[in-house]
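Q: Please design a sequence for this.
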């Protein structure tokens, strides 16, 4: 399974969009590795990178929310923690040597679904808040090319 980062997922804040695109690419890559039967080490590398990148993205997004006094911060923190947990669950499944088929299924039914719904739901609400209050000049930190695994 692979999901294209198209216009429907773009929220109009370049820093956030760039990081969302990178995260989606990593989830696509993970799904690809699992369906092509890559070995555990390759899968683990992608998964570990995704986990680290998700942490970085959520941390920066929350920091941006704090600096803009965003009312929805708490809800976002809870949602971000849930995504991190889902990624950790996958790491755990991999350590327990569950089949790639099981992991691929989990990526499709939880990670992809959750991430798309989060962008289109809570993150869109935040992007709209920035637009409505003319706060788009507030940038997410760490510009430049993201790290690759
Ligand atoms: Fe978010
Ligand atoms: Fe986000």
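A: Design:
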């Amino acid at each position: 399974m692979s999901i294209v980062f198209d216009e429907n997922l773009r929220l109009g804040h370049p820093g956030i969009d760039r990081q969302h695109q990178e995260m989606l690419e990593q989830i696509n890559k993970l799904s690809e590795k699992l369906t092509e039967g890559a070995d555990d080490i390759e899968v683990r590398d992608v998964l570990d990178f995704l986990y680290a990148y998700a942490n970085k993205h959520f941390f920066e997004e929350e920091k941006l929310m704090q600096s803009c006094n965003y009312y929805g911060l708490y809800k976002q923190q809870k949602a971000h923690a849930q995504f991190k947990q889902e990624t950790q669950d996958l790491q755990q499944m991999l350590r327990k040597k569950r089949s790639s088929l099981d992991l691929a299924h989990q990526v499709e039914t939880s990670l992809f679904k959750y991430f798309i719904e989060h962008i289109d739901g809570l993150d869109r609400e935040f992007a709209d808040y920035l637009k409505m209050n003319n706060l788009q000049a507030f940038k997410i930190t760490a510009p430049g090319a993201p790290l690759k695994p």
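Q: Thanks. Anything notable?
A: The first helix runs from residue 14 to 35. Residues 16, 20, 57, 61, 123 surround fe (ii) ion (ligand 2) (CB under 6 Å).
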